[in-house]
């Protein structure tokens, strides 16, 4: 289910951003943002002591997709608040149902995407 939701969101926002940015910028933001998000997630886990010899899965597309959401929030200020609320719901609603979600990757990805928008705007 998680993978299906990721792919739906990627299709919805990815197609819009790919037309806006062009293919090369889009893939660079998606891949680099995803890598940075996953690395920062690992730092967060290590710093907070969550890894105590147990397996924690943090690698996935959610962080990269949230990068796209953050980027979209930067370029579409009218809908930015709604995108942030959607991010919060995506990140924390599963936790209420007992589903383990890397909420920190979602939030980090959104922030990285927003900052990416500021950087890309300059170029």
UniProtKB/TrEMBL annotation:
<dbReference type="InterPro" id="IPR022764">
    <property type="entry name" value="Peptidase_S54_rhomboid_dom"/>
</dbReference>
<dbReference type="GO" id="GO:0016020">
    <property type="term" value="C:membrane"/>
</dbReference>
<keyword id="KW-0378">Hydrolase</keyword>
<feature type="transmembrane region" description="Helical">
    <location>
        <begin position="59"/>
        <end position="75"/>
    </location>
</feature>
<dbReference type="InterPro" id="IPR035952">
    <property type="entry name" value="Rhomboid-like_sf"/>
</dbReference>
<dbReference type="InterPro" id="IPR050925">
    <property type="entry name" value="Rhomboid_protease_S54"/>
</dbReference>
<feature type="transmembrane region" description="Helical">
    <location>
        <begin position="82"/>
        <end position="105"/>
    </location>
</feature>
<keyword id="KW-0472">Membrane</keyword>
<feature type="domain" description="Peptidase S54 rhomboid">
    <location>
        <begin position="1"/>
        <end position="122"/>
    </location>
</feature>
<comment type="similarity">
    <text>Belongs to the peptidase S54 family.</text>
</comment>
<keyword id="KW-0812">Transmembrane</keyword>
<feature type="transmembrane region" description="Helical">
    <location>
        <begin position="27"/>
        <end position="47"/>
    </location>
</feature>
<keyword id="KW-1133">Transmembrane helix</keyword>
<dbReference type="GO" id="GO:0004252">
    <property type="term" value="F:serine-type endopeptidase activity"/>
</dbReference>
<dbReference type="Pfam" id="PF01694">
    <property type="entry name" value="Rhomboid"/>
</dbReference>
<protein>
    <submittedName>
        <fullName>Rhomboid family protein</fullName>
        <ecNumber>3.4.21.105</ecNumber>
    </submittedName>
</protein>
